[in-house]
Amino acid sequence: MEKKLMMDFYEKMITIRKFELKADKLFKANKLPGFLHLYVGQEAIAAGVCAALRTTDYITSTHRGHGHLIAKGGDVRKMFAELYGKATGYNKGKGGSLHITAMELGILGANGIVGAGIPIATGAAFASKYKGDDKVAVSFFGDGASNRGTFHEALNMASAYKLPAVFVCENNRYGISVCADVSTSVKDIADRAAAYDMPGVIVDGNDVFAVYEAAKTAVERARSGQGPTLIECKTWRQLGHYVGDPDNYRSEKEKAAGNGLDPIPRLEKKMLSAGYTQEDLKKVQDQVDELIETAVQEAEAAPYPGTDALLADVFAE
User: Fold this and answer.
1) Beta carbons within 8 Å of 109's beta carbon, 6+ residues apart
2) 145: exposed, middle or buried (C-beta count within 10 Å: 0-12, 13-18, 19+)?
3) Which of 33, 175, 191, 220 is deepest in the core (most CB within 10 A)?
4) pLDDT category, 317, cuts 50, 70, 90?
């Protein structure tokens, strides 16, 4: 089972990495509109957490949301189409990178507002408890979001009502360009869980198995009616806050140390020790490359939404 999990994790993480690097290249070639915030370096968190979830469970994402969507089962064809603003995208080209949503997969949306997904996930968890449908809601957010009122209000409500929620803080140490050492009153964000009478767990966010085990425990706790958990995943984003960010607020020494924690080579090392071969890894990489290229070609050939779609989907009826 652990060996199979390794391959499942690897396929997800490689897909996320290659998707993001391709999106980076396309954006710099002026082929993609809008803003891009890439997930390179944090793949183990999305892969580990979503492996502990059912398809029917909910997630809310962030401005750095591509990895979460892929890990939850998102189709890279529809994702690239959405990034291109095409009618075949998840949101018919009207959501873009910052607002991709896939309700059929329990993906309640990426979100351009820092911390805004936290109360949305709490609301979904409340609805699940009210309806008794056995679903769990997970909110992904960054260290900067833990300083916002939405974080504290949501955790308080989730704990007070013992909602089936899991709060996953992806602590990459920087909120845009501001280091958490300057902006945050505690060294470990997981310590804040104590104020809301819930478990606060710290894990190595670059170790996919550590993330998975913590998420599995938290999801089981939530589903059994014991209430929420705050998981802090210590990680590192390898690129700037957004594509085009000069990233001059982090020293070269700090970048080198952070990039050395890359979760993908760490997983590859475990896989080789477990009996997989370099050929096995190369096969996955080649398959993902082919998938990405096909997705981009389809997205480029797809139509843009017409003017008749301008006011469609504005209201639910």
Assistant:
1) 60, 61, 95, 99, 100, 101, 117, 120
2) buried
3) 175
4) low
